[in-house]
Amino acid sequence: QGQLVESGGGLVQPGGSLRLSCAASRSIFSTKPLAWWRQGPGKQRALVAGITVSGRTNYADSVKGRFTISRDNALNTVYLQMNSLKPEDTAVYYCNTTWAGNPWGQGTQVTVSS
To answer: What is the secondary structure of 23-73 as a DSSP string?
Structure first.
């Protein structure tokens, strides 16, 4: 199992943007499809967006058109660009494989509030 470290969360107003980063160890970055997950208050953890090693992406319906997942192969990093943020996007965001096969990290808190 490799290491995944999330960063980039914060407090943002509705309609604002944030970019999350997930720094991965090379062993996992180069071999596993990765994803961003989130767990909002009182909700179960859910997959938000995934990206394969080759760069194919998929998104939850709730974020399509607003969020973009990408990867930087030189930096072993996966990003989540979040635009047009809504209060319901408030959650702790985690990086993991698309099947949640790695131990969960601490995540990064995203709060959307005016």
So the answer is: EE-HHHHTTS-EEEEEE-TTS--EEEEEE-TT--EEE-TTTTTTEEEEEET
Tokens 């979040």 belong to 82
DSSP helix/strand/coil, 72: strand
Tokens for 71, please give them.
């990867």
With a CB cutoff of 8 Å and minimum separation 6, the contacts of 58 are: 49, 50
- Among residues 108, 36, 29, the alpha carbon closest in space to that of 69 is found at 36
Per-residue pLDDT in tens (0 to 9) along the chain, 114 residues: 678 999 999 999 999 999 999 999 998 999 999 999 999 999 999 999 999 999 999 999 999 999 999 999 999 999 999 999 999 999 999 999 999 989 999 999 999 999
**CB of 98 closer than 8 Å to CB of 33:** yes
Residue 80: what residue type? Answer: L
User: Strand 108-112 to strand 10-12: parallel, antiparallel, or no bridges (unpaired)?
Assistant: parallel
